[in-house]
Amino acid sequence: MTDTTLTPPADKSSTILVMEPDVLVRMTIADYLRECGYKVVESSSGDDVLTILSTEIDIDTVFSGAQSADESSGFALAHRIRIARPDINVILTSGLEHAASKAAEVCSNGPLTKPYHPQELLRRIHLLRERHRTSKLSP
Amino acid sequence: MASAASNDFQRDAHGKRVILMVEDEVIIRSVVAEHLRDVNFTVIEAANAAEAIAVLSSQTHVDLVFSDITMPGELDGVGLARWIADRRGEIPVLMTSGAAVLDGSGPISRLPFVCKPYGLEDIEERIRQLLTQ
């Protein structure tokens, strides 16, 4: 797996914008980062990230998957952010394991201690996906 | 039918009530969700009905769904409310829209409704009322 981290992890007490199109992955990673003490803003698409960055919401770090709900590339998004907002850290992840590993790395620098091991983060995501896949509730 | 009791981990592990907020406008969703977190709710954010259904069908514990009506995708908020009524009828639903009233007839038209724009304290109060009913 390619390490696509572009900049170092977030500093303490910062706000992280998590961009991830899969809601089950997004909410689990966002929860994990909140439990580490960060303020977290959630986005499912690159367009939403740019919308948030155009407001007064103070974002220190963008934590982005490689793809977004509007099918824009995380790489293209990272490039746009680095040009327009070089003050913002961008952490680009590729795949679930890489995302969990990077979230744990960010957590290590966070205000609070890691709430649980990154393998538990992965386990939760896989469990939610399996429940969704096999659910009799699904349309 | 799935039950929150079957979860082996709960989103409200800290004793907080869990709100699933379904709103496609990211700024509105972020601001309202942050306020609700500030006043001690756990908030799951969904950008559309499909994401809300993914959350609900993953058996994640949810105490109340707060949904916009006008949203992109195959299902709008009314479609989502029907889906919840059919499959997760134990979960209260609070609807919102820029329109003044909830159109239609039958059970969906009788759902609790709040008109946009709403105040943060107002929506917090409405949610607390619904959770204590």
Commentary on this structure:
- Chain A has 139 residues and is of the alpha/beta class.
- Chain A has helices at residues 23-35, 46-53, 74-84, 96-108, 118-134, and strands at 15-19, 39-43, 61-64, 89-92.
- The longest helix of chain A is centred in the C-terminal third of the chain and has 17 residues, at 118-134.
- With 133 residues, chain B is an alpha/beta fold.
- Chain B has a five-stranded parallel sheet with strand order 2-1-3-4-5, sandwiched between helices.
- The two termini of chain B are 23 Å apart.
- Residues 1-11 of chain B have low confidence and may be disordered.
- Classes of the chains: A alpha/beta (139), B alpha/beta (133).
- The A-B interface holds A 23-24, 26-27, 30-31, 34, 39, 41-45, 48, 51-52, 55, 57, 69, 124, 127-129, 131-132, 135-139 and B 1-2, 8-9, 11, 26-27, 29-30, 33-34, 37, 44-47, 51, 53-60, 83, 87-88.
Compute the number of helices of chain A. 5
Q: Strand-residue fraction of chain A?
A: 5-15%
Shape of chain A: globular
* CATH class assignment of chain A: Alpha Beta
How many E strands of chain A? 4
How many structural domains of chain A?
1
Biggest contact: A-B, 30 and 28 residues
Radius of gyration of chain A: 14 Å
Radius of gyration of chain B: 14 Å
* Number of E-state strands of chain B: 5
CATH topology of chain A: Rossmann fold
- Multimerization state: heterodimer
| Overall average residue pLDDT of chain A | 86
Low-pLDDT stretches of chain A are: 1-8
Largest sheet of chain A: 4 strands, parallel
